[in-house]
Design goal:
CATH architecture of the largest domain in chain B: Sandwich
CATH topology of the largest domain in chain B: Jelly Rolls
Structural class of chain A: mainly alpha
Largest interface: A-B, 63 and 50 residues
Number of domains of chain B: 3
Helix content of chain B: 10-25%
Number of strands of chain B: 29
Shape of chain B: globular
Number of helices of chain A: 10
Number of strands of chain A: 0
CATH class of the largest domain in chain B: Mainly Beta
Oligomer: heterodimer
Radius of gyration of chain A: 19 Å
Largest sheet of chain B: 8 strands, antiparallel
Number of domains of chain A: 2
Shape of chain A: globular
Strand content of chain B: 35-45%
Distance between the termini of chain B: 67 Å
Order of helices and strands of chain A: HHHHHHHHHH
Helix content of chain A: over 70%
Strand content of chain A: under 5%
Chain lengths: 181, 429
């Protein structure tokens, strides 16, 4: 038996960064589920990346790194929530773990291609739909505020958002199943 | 509506925070038992962060120039002139910005909000909206506030700072009376430039990333990205400061007003108290037989019935190049206290050529200070500092040092500082 089989080689800094960057959307999304603010979620991802590079922790596999990244992002999100007043109610830990587990599995299977498919699908959206998503997730307005801005009913905004999310999911799946080229 | 659509809307209402506790419990049960609901939720979360990412990138893309070769027939000129007038009127109306606003997106430490009508609020929460005329003050060395402007720009003030929103000739005006500001100014559509007033300068930009340190007689500007125009108020001189350059804008016309390239960063720093300008908070005390340089801590009221006694030392004000923090760096402070109480050391850090990063603090126990009244020297390794915000990394390695602050919560300690140094890691460490 060779030595390389006996000893697991830790990921290099380059491996860590490459792996984290390829899963940036998922780790940020996991943080977003806790904090519900896309800019804070991005800050949390950056902190997770910085911690992975500077804390001296060794990761023996990509899976171990991603598992650590999801847990760290969740903890940072919860810490951030604790410091906020009027913070949203956080999902139960067991549910967050379940979601992270599913994310980690999907991440291993699909790498970063899902993120690119999503970006392509967003490009194809009509301007009105993209504007709705921007108001809700980039500007961070609650649906009630978005409804007031657009002069629409609250129920209608929820319905439009729900269908928009569903159509983006369908678009991503279609793109992922299409042959490359 | 199908059952799935009902579920999805319920989940969106949950994410929006608009469900009552019983419906929230229902969402919990749904997510535990239904893989489809979890997949939808994961999808929404991914889409939310990617939407924000795509918008951020779009705002930083250069706008392609459109070249149009008009072919006007003479009979069209009259129509065109009328249309131009209408367009011009519409443009002028559209260009007048609605009173710009800034939303507090994150906050740490004691702050004060003073509304334009004079109402004072000593507790400021994330989500507070500042309108033209409103003021926000960060009241302690360890405080910071992040503000999101309605055009996507982001500003952070930290330490003892005072910022007010102004309406300057239709620009998005901000007054920084004193303190530190880190800004990323985004250009969105036809929004007017940002104009920042300090006691010594007017600073204008349409798109840039920069930091600004302001004191009553000096403003120090460092531009990391984009382009900033500066006017020295003392004599009306103006200069353009491009990326990687800096300028010191003094109240005195005798001080040179020059834009220079930012010097290469260093790994250690001595505040040179004798030279004066590096100490930005504190009271100079007369020399005594033991020490020729003595900076007494200044009382700072940081909240109702809470006073600390602090001295603050700024890297930029001392005239030093940027100081990089590395693994193994140390802070060495020499001083004196009259009681056997702990003191605290703090570091303000920023990203290299970027925005505000965070604050770190270390407690120096009374036992490390020796006998009351005797001069002490404390050497605090970087590893002993703790982040003030929990989502910061444990250590600010690779960041840039903005300032060092020292404080005691006790007036009777009569804290005084004689020397402040930031030491690079030892050779072989």
């Amino acid at each position: 038996m060779s030595l390389s089989v006996l000893f697991t080689v830790a990921l290099t800094e380059q491996d860590i960064l490459k792996r984290l960057m390829s899963q940036r959307d998922r780790v940020s999304a996991a943080a977003w589920l806790v904090v519900r603010n896309a800019h804070t979620a991005e800050d949390i991802f950056q902190n997770v990346a910085l911690k992975a590079m500077t804390k001296g922790t060794q990761f023996e596999s990509g899976g171990a790194l991603m598992s650590w990244a999801f847990i760290t992002a969740r903890r940072e999100g919860i810490d951030w929530l604790r410091r906020q007043k009027n913070a949203p109610v956080c999902l139960d830990d067991t549910i967050l773990e379940l979601l992270e587990h599913e994310w980690a599995d999907a991440a291993a299977a699909q790498g970063g291609i899902r993120g690119q498919a999503l970006r392509d699908c967003l490009e194809e959206l009509p301007a009105k739909s993209r504007d709705l998503l921007k108001r809700r997730y980039f500007d961070g307005h609650a649906c009630e505020e978005v409804a007031a801005q657009l002069g629409a009913g609250l129920d209608a905004v929820y319905k439009r958002l729900s269908r928009l999310h569903q159509s983006l999911r369908t678009c991503i799946e279609t793109k992922l199943t299409q042959p490359a080229g | 509506m199908t059952s799935n659509e009902d579920q999805n809307e319920l989940l969106l209402r949950y994410l929006d925070g608009s469900l009552d506790p019983s419906d929230q419990a229902m969402v919990g049960d749904l997510l535990r038992g239904d893989a489809g609901a979890r997949a939808f939720l994961r999808g929404v979360a991914e889409q939310a962060v990617v939407v924000a990412d795509v918008e951020r990138i779009d705002r930083h893309k250069p706008q392609p120039a459109k070249v149009v070769a008009p072919e006007f027939h003479p009979w069209k000129w009259a129509v065109a002139a009328a249309a131009a007038l209408v367009f011009l009127a519409a443009f002028v109306i559209a260009s007048i910005p609605p009173g710009h606003v800034a939303k507090v997106s994150a906050i740490l430490g004691p702050c004060q909000y003073i509304a334009a009508d004079g109402k004072v609020q000593n507790e400021v929460k994330a989500g507070t909206v500042l309108r033209v005329g409103d003021t926000i003050r960060t009241r302690s060395s360890s405080t910071w506030v992040k503000l999101a402007l309605n055009d996507g720009s982001v500003m952070t003030i930290a330490g003892r700072s005072r910022l007010r929103l102004l309406n300057v000739d239709g620009r998005r005006g901000v007054q920084l009376a004193y303190g530190n500001l880190w800004a990323t100014v985004a250009k969105q559509g036809r929004v007017k430039p940002v104009s920042i007033q300090t006691p010594t300068a007017t600073i204008e930009t349409s798109t840039a990333q920069f930091d600004l340190e302001v004191h009553p007689t000096t403003s120090i500007l460092r531009v990391n990205d984009g382009f900033v125009n500066v006017e020295r108020l003392a004599d009306g001189q103006t200069a353009d400061v491009a990326a990687d350059h800096q300028a010191v804008i003094s109240i005195s016309r005798n001080r040179q007003f020059a834009v220079i390239r930012q010097p290469k960063p260093v790994n250690d720093w001595n505040c040179h108290l004798l030279a004066g300008p590096g100490a930005v908070i504190g009271n100079w005390l007369p020399s005594n037989e033991k020490n020729s340089v003595r900076l007494g801590a200044k009382p700072l009221l940081i909240g109702k019935k809470t006073t600390i006694y602090a001295a603050n030392f700024s890297v930029q004000c001392s005239g030093s190049p940027a100081v990089l923090i590395e693994d193994g760096s140390k802070v060495r402070v020499t001083g004196n206290t009259q009681t056997e109480n702990p003191i605290y050391l703090g570091l303000t850090t920023q990203r290299i050529k970027g925005g505000f990063f965070g604050k770190y603090i270390a407690k120096v126990g009374a036992e490390a200070l020796g006998q009351a009244g005797e001069t002490w020297q404390v050497e605090m390794p970087l590893s002993q500092f703790e982040p003030k915000t929990e989502h910061l990394p444990d250590l600010p390695i690779g960041m840039e040092l903005t300032d060092i602050w020292v404080f005691s919560p006790e007036e009777s300690a009569k804290l005084e500082i004689h020397r402040v140094e930031f030491l690079s890691k030892e050779v072989g460490q």
